[in-house]
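User: quick one, fold this
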Amino acid sequence: MPLLADDADDRGRQLLGLTERLTLLVDAERAEIAGRRPPDETAAAERARLATIYRQEMAQIAQDRRRLAGLAPALSRQLEAATEKFMAALDAHANAVAALKEISEGLVHAIAAEVSRAQPRAAGYDAGGYRPRAAGPTPVAVNQRA
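Assistant:
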């Protein structure tokens, strides 16, 4: 659902509020990641809803620049500053998520390696005269929401 605006300044004010709110939500989620706290489901739902509106509005503006034609210069500067802050928050959030993913994957690999080392190795030869090959990694169930 795109923004409903009377004119460019109205659209700019709504877009400014939307951008600032999204920035707060992204920063809050990054703090949850850093604090190793579970995500706030209500905030996540709001963030997803607002992100959809933001994405739709940006697509419409890219398609028709007249949607912001006549925007007051002061409001334009505020919107530009808020957008830069939002993009910086998104970059920091992406880095936090990437670090969390790397840690999680490293933990899964370490557990799989330990399980593999703990399994007994076959000694000798099999019925065909070959040494049994070492078993591959043991599958580990992973909760995708973690």
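User: anything notable?
Assistant: The mean pLDDT is 86.
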